[in-house]
Write a structure and sequence with these properties.
Length: about 700
């Protein structure tokens, strides 16, 4: 099968350069490719393997040992006087649904059962040694697999301690991961383990887009002919990689260049020293690629643009990026070292022709609003004579009126219906309280949801607690115990056990699952009047942060005016959630029944997509229903009876009707008054909730 040629990929200069740097110096630490769907991320990564130099390996070694320097601890060793073979560098793909056994290897069950010996079956980390390990959608990979993968990439070795097998083998590879940020982010500590990052986005230029489509159609019409047309360009790139690898040991990193690298890392306040090491290695590789004998300020700048953006992301609400004006300022202040002379002897020798180096483009800016934690301007004193929910609601008058800020939107439909005069439909956007780290809350019992870091669950990964009939993964001890009583009746005569299909057992493992926390929030005028939306938004942002770390999903349903809307569909994307919450408007009447119905619909749709994920519904309301009736709301609450719920009562004033208490009773939910919430706000209620 013909792979799409690397040199035929149009655009993506930053990504091409990052991949070529790692091809020259795999010690840089790999590449994380972030970008929207349909931007040729997978295509260009798969094409890279064809440019890598062929390797010499020990014939028959499952761990691709170098015959000139074999691994003394290779499980297939020793390799004295071993025969060598030449083969292309491998591209090994790690699928999202891979198991731990597939990644690191495991006991060879067939030999254990038939021959009674403990033998190791290598995994993908062994197959990728001295090649490329490609992880598509790395942000969707289970956390424990990501940890194993990045540990091996950092140490150059894989350690296996399981099922009576203790193995260590070399595992050095070029790690490339791709991800779509819309589907959730990697944790900052995992981002830091990737050497370089590249942001990719489809060009908006019609001519460039036409060229991309033209090339792709030509490839699909005649893959062999298209590949042959670009074979020379790919061959030149492959030659250039080999030549740069040969020059790499000769490149000098001067003290001045090193001080410039460390000054940049210090200026941008990156954690740890991995960024300094990655920048140094990347700058050296760039100098070798350009056939320079010493690192220059231009090399340092390119290395910084590729190595630092993802390390600046300390908080999940921060979008990856780098202030290039600030970078230039640091480089100008520290770039006075001498780089004019090439320190290598014979550096003036003629160079063979090589393809042009892709010029990197600035990383695409992400469209996202910054989360502010500063206190907003004080709101005006409440006007006791105005009722945001309108006359005749049968409830105490609220304490303030939502006056629209300059340029605020007004609900035109309700204004035409005669409600505008009361001020009920004037909308404003409230800021959020500062986000904070919430305490852990769990859903009691044992679920079977998606692996996460919160509630107890039976998952394919985790602590083994027993065995049950099944074939997904063999539980060796359970299988042996099941077969042992039947050996005489089965006529066993040799050393091996007689195993039948009904003897096979799979492990029962207990780990942690992620949950769905769905907020159903009253965004009417009375809520904004008391500035309650600030606390609600701050709590949801805090839970988004916690969900990011624990692999939960968080959703938000709001109701105001005449209807309800899903302001935030269930998601693990922190950036999307932060933007939606920051722009959430408040004002208008209180359609409580519509909010509960919308919440039931969200849970129903999410259950179809992910039936094993258990939800917790947090309803923030005073129980009033000024659009529709309280009885309608109580009937709608019946649809949420199967979900664990918390009702936060926001009713205020000297006279309380207890409508939220009636709602909580109908739901079978815990009732918490807003004024009784702990100092850390609404998230404390969710964290402390124990669902029966």
């Amino acid at each position: 099968m013909n792979t799409y040629p690397f040199s035929a990929v149009a655009g993506l200069e930053d990504l091409k350069l990052a991949l070529l740097i790692n091809a020259v110096s795999p010690s840089v630490g790999g590449v994380l490719v972030r970008g929207e769907k349909g931007t040729a991320k997978s295509t260009i990564v798969r094409a890279l393997a064809g440019l890598l130099p062929a390797i010499s390996a020990v014939a028959g070694c499952r761990f691709s040992c170098d015959p000139d320097a074999p691994d003394p601890e290779c499980p297939d060793g020793p390799h004295d006087d071993a025969e060598r073979q030449e083969r292309p560098a491998r591209l090994v793909e790690l699928p999202v649904g891979a198991s731990e056994d597939r990644l690191v290897g495991s006991l060879d069950i067939e030999r254990a059962l038939t021959e009674g010996v403990r033998a190791y079956q290598p995994g993908l980390l062994a197959a990728a040694h001295r090649g490329v390990l490609y992880v598509d959608e790395v942000n969707l990979l289970h956390d424990h697999l990501v940890d194993l993968l990045l540990d091996a990439a950092a140490m150059g070795q894989s350690y296996v301690e399981r099922e009576g097998v203790s193995v260590r083998h070399a595992s050095r590879f070029l790690l490339v991961g791709t991800m779509n940020p819309e589907e959730g982010e990697l944790r900052p500590q995992l981002l830091d383990r990737f050497g370089l990052t590249a942001e990719v986005a489809a060009t908006r230029d019609p001519d460039e887009r036409a060229e991309v489509v033209r090339r792709r159609l030509a490839y699909e019409a005649d893959p062999a002919g298209f590949t042959a047309d670009w074979a020379r360009a790919d061959a030149e790139l492959a030659w250039h990689i080999r030549a740069a690898r040969d020059r790499l040991p000769e490149v000098v990193l001067s003290d001045g260049a090193l001080r410039q690298i460390t000054a940049v890392c210090a200026e941008f306040e990156v954690d740890g020293l991995r960024a300094d090491l990655v920048m140094a290695r990347a700058a050296i590789a760039l100098a070798a690629w350009h056939d320079r004998g010493a690192v220059t300020p231009a090399d340092v700048r390119l290395a910084a643009r590729l190595a630092l953006p993802h390390r600046r992301r300390r908080d999940p609400f921060d979008a990856p990026g780098l202030d290039e004006d600030r970078l230039d300022d640091v480089l100008d202040r520290t770039g006075d070292y001498d780089t004019e002379e090439d320190p290598r002897p014979g550096s003036s020798r003629p160079k063979p022709p090589s393809p042009p180096v892709p010029e990197p483009r600035p990383p695409a800016e992400e469209d996202g609003s910054e989360i502010t934690t500063e206190d907003p301007e004080p709101e005006p004193e409440p006007d006791p004579d105005t009722d945001p929910d309108g006359p005749g609601s049968g409830t105490p008058l609220p304490d303030a009126v939502d006056l629209p800020a300059e340029g605020a939107l007004v609900d035109i439909g309700q204004a035409l219906s005669g409600n505008a005069a009361s001020g009920a439909d004037r909308l404003k956007t409230s800021p959020a309280d500062a986000a904070y780290r919430p305490r852990l809350f769990v859903v009691p019992g044992i679920g079977e949801g998606a692996p996460g870091r919160r509630s107890r669950s039976r998952t394919p990964y985790g602590r083994t607690t027993g065995a049950r009939p099944g074939f997904r993964t063999v539980h060796l001890a359970g299988t042996l115990f099941a077969a042992a009583p039947h050996q005489r009746s089965r006529g066993r005569s040799g050393p091996g056990l007689v195993i039948r299909a009904d003897d096979i057992r799979e492990p029962v493992r207990e780990g942690r699952e992620g949950n769905l926390v769905l907020f159903v929030v009253d965004a009417s005028g009375s809520m904004a009047a008391r500035r309650r939306m600030r606390a609600v938004k701050g709590a949801v942002l805090s839970l988004l942060l916690d969900a990011y770390q624990r692999r939960d999903k968080v959703g938000l349903v709001t109701f105001r005016g005449r209807d309800a809307e899903t302001a935030l569909p269930p998601t693990s994307s922190v950036e999307a959630g932060a933007r939606r919450l920051e722009d959430l408007p408040t004002g208008g009447r209180t359609p409580l029944a519509a909010g509960l119905l919308r919440a039931a619909g969200v849970l129903r749709a999410e259950h179809l997509r992910d039936p094993a994920r258990r939800p917790l519904v947090v309803i923030v309301t005073d129980g009033r229903a000024t659009h529709g009736s309280v009885d309608d709301a109580l009937r709608a609450a019946a649809l949420l009876r199967d979900a664990a719920s918390v009702v936060v009562d926001c009713e205020s004033g000297p006279v309380r009707l207890g409508l939220a208490a009636r709602l909580a009773e109908r739901l079978g939910a815990e009732l918490v008054r807003l004024e009784d919430l702990p100092a850390d706000g609404l998230a404390g209620v969710v964290r402390d909730r124990r669902v029966a």
